[in-house]
Amino acid sequence: MTSRSPVWHPFTQHAVQPEAVMISKGEGAWLEAADGRRIFDAISSWWVVTHGHRHPHIMQAIKQQADRLDQVIFAGFTHEPAEKLARRLVEITPPELEYVFFSDSGSTSVEVALKMALGFWRHHGSNRNRILALEGAYHGDTIGGMSVGERGVFNAPYDPLLFDVQRIPFPAAGREQATLDALDAACMKGDVAALIVEPLVLGAGGMLIYPPHVLAGMKRVCAAHEILFIADEVMTGWGRTGTLFACEQADISPDIACYSKGLTGGSLPLAVTLCRADIFDAHYSADRSRTFFHSSSYTANPIACAAALANLEIWQREPVMERISAIAAFHQDKLARFRDDERFSNVRQIGTIAALDLAAKDAGYLADIGPRLYRGFLARGLLVRPLGNTIYIMPPYCSTAHDLDLVYDAVDELADESD
Ligand SMILES: *Cc1c(COP(=O)(O)O)cnc(C)c1O
């Protein structure tokens, strides 16, 4: 007999969900449960694991750093892993990003980005304070992140605490110009501080993809109105969309960018917010009231920074891009059989992300279809967590064709069982 666990799990309705699976080991693209079951991690443990679980180079870097320095206050002090990492990030991210602010989660990196934007305008003597965001966006679960994200069942109880944001329609196919026109109109009002977007893919909003030219168009409109452009690359970064960062495909440099999830290869929590020099400069003053008043206790944790540096070395040393291309090609190939299949709609793919919507009578996020599919996949040894009726696959880059075949075969089978 086991006694009831005191753990309160994230995004989990304990009253109806089965007991959590006890995982005792991770290796490559696979998880091992305490009862011996092997489970293919088809969603990279919530989109964070890029090179696979326990990549030896990252594990070694963590061990070596743990022998030297575990943690140190980051105000007034610094350390080599953070200094090296910041320099490398400035080198590999879009050219205009010159300063690096460390934090510990994607949500926090978004809060930091919003605070940088408002600080920038305030220190320039402007009261621009409105944020624009895309409909269907997800930017994290803190109050600021929820405020700029789509409103719905997830945040209804907290609505009184959320600040007002103006929404720009999602650039659905054929409606791209409407998005740019709405953005332009919103920018005219003169009170806008920044636009925040997930470049090329709205992740938690349902894996909705839009083309690079629209991303470039949004950046162009913002630049014309001198409005800050914030790229939330927390999910899209580190190769997910087929390039190291999604903004590269639109050939744009955001004014502020957030990166987290794959930053440490998915091994330890770490996030960064990068910004243009003039945003740092707006806070640079003998006047202490202009200080950027933000910190997380574990800001730039040395072990996490060492893991991130090891991740960057893997990108240099190993054929990561080739692996990503191979997964992208495999997705293309396997999705083909579902494109004319009336059980599915909106079959889509970008880089290592594949998604398709299962036809269902009740398709909302709270409908039973998501949990039923989840249980079906799990029974087949696959970790797949549909968003409502949207099934998506976002595997670690070390996944094999055989691993992915298991998922696609299960998609085919489960679609028949789900009516
Ligand atoms: C996951 C995610 C976040 C939040 O990151 P956490 O580390 O979970 O706080 C923010 N923005 C986007 C686009 C995300 O996908």
Would you give an account of this structure?
Helix 2 (56-66) packs antiparallel against helix 9 (302-317) and helix 4 (106-123) crosses helix 8. Among the domains are: 59-317, Aspartate Aminotransferase, domain 2; 324-354, no CATH class. The protein is built from twelve helices and 16 strands. It is 36% helix and 17% strand. Strands 4-12-11-10-7-5-6 form a seven-stranded mixed beta sheet, with helices on both faces. A four-stranded mixed beta sheet has the order 1-2-3-15. The longest helix is centred in the last third of the chain and has 20 residues, at 320-339. The chain has 419 residues and is α/β, with parallel strands linked by helices. The mean pLDDT is 96. The protein has helices at residues 44-47, 56-66, 80-92, 106-123, 143-148, 176-188, 212-224, 277-283, 302-317, 320-339, 369-379, 401-417, and strands spanning 23-27, 30-33, 38-41, 97-103, 130-134, 166-168, 192-197, 201-202, 208-209, 228-232, 256-259, 271-276, 344-350, 353-358, 382-383, 390-393. Residues 105-107, 110, 138-140, 198, 203-204, 232, 234-235, 260 line the site of pyridoxal-5'-phosphate.
